[in-house]
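To the structural biology subgroup,

Please find below the input and predicted structure for ZIP family metal transporter, which we are adding to the shared reference set this quarter. The sequence is reproduced verbatim from the submission form. If anyone notices a discrepancy with their own records, reply to this email rather than editing the shared folder directly, so we keep one authoritative version.
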Amino acid sequence: MSVEATVWVVFVAAMITAIATGLGALPFLFVKQFSPRWLSLFNALAAGLMLAASHSLVGEGSGDAPWLTLLGMALGLLLVVVSDRIISRRGAPDVNELSGANARKALLILGIMTIHSFAEGVGVGVSYGGGESLGMFISAAIAIHNIPEGLAISLVLIPRGMSVLKAGGWSIFTSLPQPLMAVPAFLFVTWFAPFLPVGLGIAAGAMMWMVFAELLPDALKDASPGAVATTVVLAFFCMYAFQYAMH
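Predicted structure (tokenized):
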């Protein structure tokens, strides 16, 4: 297969991984109303999913370059703290139906998940550099892995008033860096590969901050600490088992 043909294969594969993120909103087609307690538990569920995703990113990056992964985590923490302060001072723009504090949370989680997608896009491109069969396997794994990530995004957006369709659209939007980064990563695999652990660390550090600064405090507003802890652990367990099965 020529390089030009493979470039299109890489782009289409990465685009499929992005579209798969929108599938995470589908469960909400069957749920119309949310009590305050369920909203809190949804935040706990999103926290558990994001913690498991962070754990996976750190493990993947540390296997290749632990110090670069730690550097990435520090950069991710710095990036999200600075971004949160800027948004808090200047005010967050409305995100569709959301406004005020809800818009700030939505903007943060959308930004964090978008950063995460840059690393995944590089991962797709680098994997195709190792052969088409490896690239297809990694792309399929990331696509399936993106569905619960889309669910985590929807768990934050939909209970706060966003429609299922728009939440699915925003979920896909956060994954668009995947096809954008996959092609250059494939074409310049030897240059991109060393920076992948840094990207994984940035995403992990930012997501961990989001869990402890935003999702868990919201989860504890209308649900007991025991119920929140149980939901977080079960979500982490299910996500980790899912990731382990994929590998």
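Summary notes: The radius of gyration is 18 Å. Residues 18 and 175 are 5 Å apart (CA to CA).

Regards,
Lab coordination
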